[in-house]
Design brief:
Keywords: Signal. The chain has 339 residues and is an alpha/beta fold. The chain contains 13 helices and 14 strands.
């Protein structure tokens, strides 16, 4: 009897040791992030989790929150090996010094911008009908936000400041406009208004350019770059990515509100490198081709109204394959001041 049991016991022990060894081999992917902001970026962290879940690696994400952490400091930490991965808005500097995972995290929603303002500025802002009108107002932006470079190179007045000072400055009328991605603004405004009751969204206006968050890893870490790329590609193929995108309450709210805005101005993004500019359109919401037809001085008159034709009332409509900007006859949306 004892001889018969021995092989069975040995087999069980071998299986246990094999399983325990596999658990021990599970790796941790470390990411540093500014303290207090993790919940606001829950969607973006879910995207990284999706990449890991759909990869061949056994990895879990570990988030370390650090007080006062800036975007530039994050890049330095990644270069020094103090963190494994970061995400941030595309910039030439990040793209050149790090490895970028070339799948936009929010499908370009980060480039769909709306504006916060002090309610005292609303009468003047309601007169904005053209891109030239909009450029008469200075826009607040974070010191190291790539958006500031994009807007400056498109002829906007931009007032840069550390992120944590922007809302105080807006409340004190240091500048009339503060730029936020639409899904960020709708998510943040209720909490902001508890501290800054005079802060409101500017009715009717949005600004659109090709821009997004990307995941970055250290230069030379091609294995991790490929792992995350493969994970996101599989998440798209299985439908998991779009399910996460469509179910995010901030994004779904923003998409609904943006579709009703009467004045949507598109501008080019001059800081994109050729690789990022030519990312497969299926990864961008609406497949908008910001750097082709819509920004030429002569657009096809039968399908697209050129953004350069200022003074036109524009809105999105859907066609089976893409979104087009066309002339709209009537305004369709205003944001409640108490929103």
């Amino acid at each position: 009897m004892q001889k018969k049991l021995r092989p069975t016991i040995i087999g069980i022990l071998a299986s246990f040791l094999f399983f325990a060894g596999n658990v021990a081999q599970a790796e941790t992917l470390n990411i540093a992030f500014p303290s207090g902001l993790k919940e606001l970026f829950k969607y973006e962290f879910n995207v990284i989790e999706l990449a890991l879940e759909n990869s061949d690696a056994d990895m879990s994400l570990n988030v370390t929150e650090i007080d006062g952490l800036s975007g530039s400091r994050l890049v330095e930490m990644l270069k020094a090996g103090e963190t494994d991965v970061i995400f941030g808005g595309y910039s030439p500097q990040r793209n050149e010094s790090l490895l970028q995972i070339n799948i936009p995290m929010t499908r370009g929603m980060l480039g769909h911008r709306v504006f916060m303002t002090h309610r005292d500025n609303l009468p003047a802002l309601r007169q904005v009908k053209t891109l030239t009108d909009l450029k008469q107002f200075c826009i607040g932006a974070g010191s190291d936000w790539p958006d500031a470079d994009i807007m400056e190179q498109n002829g906007f007045c931009v007032d840069r400041a550390p992120r944590n000072r922007l809302w105080d400055m807006l409340e004190n009328k240091r500048f009339p406009l503060l730029t936020r991605a639409a899904h960020e603004a709708f998510r943040e405004l209720p909490d902001l208004q508890r501290k800054y009751p005079d802060l409101v969204l500017v009715p009717d206006i949005s600004l659109v350019y090709k821009f997004d968050f990307f995941i970055y890893v250290r230069k030379g870490n091609t294995q991790l770059q490929q792992l995350l790329t493969t994970g996101l590609e599989r998440a798209y193929a299985s439908g998991a990515f779009m399910k996460n995108f469509e179910r995010d309450p901030s994004i779904s709210h923003a998409l609904a509100e943006l579709s009703r805005l009467p004045y949507t101005f598109t501008i080019r993004n001059p800081i994109l490198d050729p690789t990022t500019k030519n990312i497969d359109p299926k990864y961008w919401h609406g497949n908008l081709e910001f750097d082709t037809h819509q920004n030429r001085s002569s657009c096809p008159k039968n399908k697209i109204t050129c953004p350069e034709q200022e003074g036109i009332n524009m809105r999105y409509i859907t066609d089976p394959s893409r979104f087009y900007l066309i002339a709209a006859k009537t305004p369709a949306f205003s944001v409640p001041l108490s929103y």
